[in-house]
Design goal:
Number of domains: 2
Number of strands: 11
Order of helices and strands: EEEEEEHHEEEEE
Structural class: alpha+beta
Helix content: 10-25%
Largest sheet: 5 strands, mixed
Bound molecules: zinc ion
Low-confidence stretches: none
Distance between the termini: 26 Å
Radius of gyration: 19 Å
Strand content: 25-35%
Oligomer: single chain
Length: 168
């Protein structure tokens, strides 16, 4: 897979961080042994004081909503198309395991670099200014990507975590 890269700089100092969008899949292993897929998020880590990859948070309420609407759909669409077959069971199991993980989880999302729950998702407004205030007191901003910049090939990486987001 070919992924673009971007740079994060600071309005107040010469800090420069690299946003590497290499493909990472997170796999959470539940105490039951079930494996739940999670998502990586580009974040700012206050421990690393750098741009980092972090866990995307699980939201139990929104997963529960998905399950509820899935169950309603199941009666209609899936019921008609698959006649109550295996596909819907697999999907419902996947959602239920995600919900289990969200309910088990006590700590905040962690930095995949240092493992500390000291991350905030890195977001930018229309002008490219970040929500994050750097240690120097000024805000971070993103340097627009040059569409002609060289692109690098990365091998997809799988990171296995326990339900609290610690690498295993
Ligand atoms: Zn700074
Ligand atoms: Zn960190």
């Amino acid at each position: 897979m070919s992924m673009p890269m971007g740079y994060v700089r600071c309005h107040g100092c010469d800090f420069e961080g690299l946003m590497q969008r290499h493909p990472i899949t997170l796999e959470y292993v539940l105490p039951t042994g079930a494996v739940v897929q999670g998502y990586r998020e580009v974040a700012w880590c206050y421990s690393c004081e750098d741009v980092t990859d972090a866990e995307a948070a699980f939201d139990a309420a929104s997963i529960q909503n998905e399950i509820d609407s899935f169950k309603r759909r199941k009666v209609g669409f899936f019921g008609r198309i698959f006649g109550g077959g295996k596909a819907e069971d697999v999907e419902l199991k996947r959602l239920t395991e995600r919900l289990q993980l969200a309910q088990l989880r006590k700590s905040a999302p962690r930095c995949l670099n240092c493992g500390e729950p000291t991350v905030v998702p890195l977001a930018f407004d229309e002008s490219g200014t970040s929500n994050v205030v750097h240690t120097c007191g000024r805000r971070l901003f993103v340097v627009p990507e040059d569409p002609d910049a060289p692109r690098f090939m990365f091998r997809p990486e799988v990171v296995r975590l326990d339900s609290e987001g610690r690498k295993i």
